[in-house]
Amino acid sequence: MRIPVQVKVYGQTVLSNALIDSGAEGKFINSKFVAKHRIPVQKLVKPIPVHNVDGTPNQNGTITHYTLRPLLFGNKLTMAFLLVTSLGKEDIILGLPWLKQCNPLINWKEGTISIRRTTTATSLAQRTTKTIKPLKDSIPAHYHNFIHLFEKKAAEQFPIERPYDHAINLKPDFIPRDCKLYSMTPQEEVALDEFLTENLRKGYIRLSKSPMASPFFFVDKKDGTLRPCQDYRALNEGTIKNAYPLPLIGDLMDKLRNAKYFTKLDLRSGYNNIRIKEGDQHKAAFKTIRGLFEPTVMFFGLCNSPATFQMFMNDIFRVIITEEAILIYMDDILIFSDNLEDLRRKTN
């Protein structure tokens, strides 16, 4: 079965057809198609040997390059990791990994295919959240003037350049290091593709040619989902530490001794609100089975991230912090008072 697909290349759209093949163990793009449309490719960290059904080496040889391309199927946009090889008359072949990732609805009788707008996990989450109140109903009426600040879309804006941009200053004797590449389960591959697609879309990461790399892997969360992690221990060892202090918990608790009413605010994607300083992004590059990427915004795991973020928050809220109107611990804000009217005044 073949389906029409739009391939995004340098902001332009190339029309083609993709062959859906459940017997293929990957997602592939024809090397001739790549050359014809000048599609940029990256070298694989580890070349992939190609074998025939009988186990003999394929005449097309080893796969050495890949391309990470946005593919549009109707109104469904996905980021696809495509291995570059010879495919005969086919431009693109989407195999079992793509079928698992997109889980399309196929009508073999009529020869049609429809791709769900969401993954299974997202669909379950959406069904669960249907019973949750609309955003306006979840926010007290006296704060409705600020509803736009609670919208997820507002939090996805790429941060502007500021004096607080996160610098990664390395020790003079630091030697750039490569790292181990972690293999992944099929479930983790799907989660990785979703992570890369989302963060590439936001501009939070980009492809990298850095001479140094940190490992990338997933850990299980309590709710059964996967948390992406970068292991920056080697980078952190070679980083000059920022001595900017975090507030002492005991001091914060003392300031609350007479408080009776509280408003707690937790910033969405707190660290992602700060850029990595221009020229330092490559130092935080991380290696995945889909290639090498570098963050353009601050991620968890960098040793000086807490100090950078606390300095950022303290400077922005300096006046009201000195007036003891709020407490701030990194991305958590607590507004407090001994009476409700005063609390609402401070919050507004």
What does this structure look like?
The chain is of the alpha+beta class and 348 residues long. It folds into two domains: 2-117, Acid Proteases (Cathepsin D, subunit A, domain 1, Beta Barrel), CATH 2.40.70; 151-347, HIV Type 1 Reverse Transcriptase, subunit A, domain 1 (HIV Type 1 Reverse Transcriptase, Chain A, domain 1, Roll). Helix content is 24%, strand content 28%. The chain contains eleven helices and 17 strands. The chain has helices at residues 31-36, 96-102, 120-129, 135-138, 152-155, 186-202, 233-237, 249-255, 305-316, 318-322, 340-347, and strands at 2-9, 12-20, 27-30, 42-48, 63-73, 76-85, 92-94, 105-107, 112-114, 205-207, 214-220, 226-230, 261-266, 286-288, 291-295, 326-329, 332-337. The strands form four sheets. Strands 1-2-7-3-6-5 form a six-stranded mixed barrel. Strand 5 (63-73) and strand 6 (76-85) form a beta hairpin. Residues 200-348 form the Reverse transcriptase domain. InterPro entries: DNA/RNA_pol_sf, Peptidase_aspartic_dom_sf, Rev_trsase/Diguanyl_cyclase, RNA-dir_DNA_polymerase, RT_dom. It holds the Pfam family RVT_1. This is Reverse transcriptase domain-containing protein. It comes from Phellinidium pouzarii.
